[in-house]
Amino acid sequence: MLFLRTAARRCRGLAAPRCLPVGHSASTSTATYVQGQSPEPRIREYFYYIDHQGQLFLDDTKVKNFVTCFKDKPFLVFFFSRLRSNRSGRYEEDFPFLSPCGRERNFVRCDDRPVVFTHLLQSPAGSPGITADRELLSYCGGAEKLSAPFRPEALYMHPDSGRLYHPCSERAGGGGVGLVRSALAIELSPFFVYAPERDQSGQPTHFHWGGRKHTLTNVLAGCFPTAEETSGQQDGLG
């Protein structure tokens, strides 16, 4: 993957927010690294960041926008298909995810979740295990190569942040939870149904899709800490 990078090998002390659940302030700690550093023979280490739009950057990119993010689809599929929790013993606090590539260690941190769903697609004919008329949520620029079957009943709106989430494969990282990027969440928002007495001020109860009224299961609610747990985490960090 080296030819796809424009990393400058310069040392810097980085204030790296840890990847905490949405709705809670990320603490900062200093992780010092050099892009392309070699902590042991024939091993190279690189450091990346995923924003809440699902865009991938070299972590030390100063201006992070559509111009500076990685856009090559084969690279993104390769990178995200190998993403997993960081259990390497290195940078685990500041870069909770790792995408290994041969002798390269690609450490990853994120704004919210490493999987960010960006588009709703019709599954192409011949997709293994998926009927041709089933919809897919694709993530992080990989189109149908990086996708999960769309499950309308499993959409979860976080009660504090209002951000929208959907299940993803445990292998994709993020504890089986993917963030729905804001532009796609806005497209889906007219199909949510709220309790009459709450208008649109609380969590939705149903989702109209495909000619059906789906009862929202809120199955992902247990993947987020309670207010009490969050308070304890922040007290401990202070």
UniProtKB/TrEMBL annotation:
Pfam families: DUF4505. InterPro entries: DUF4505 (IPR028108). Belongs to the UPF0598 family. This is Chromosome 8 open reading frame 82. It comes from Cyclopterus lumpus (Lumpsucker). The lineage of its organism: Eukaryota, Metazoa, Chordata, Craniata, Vertebrata.
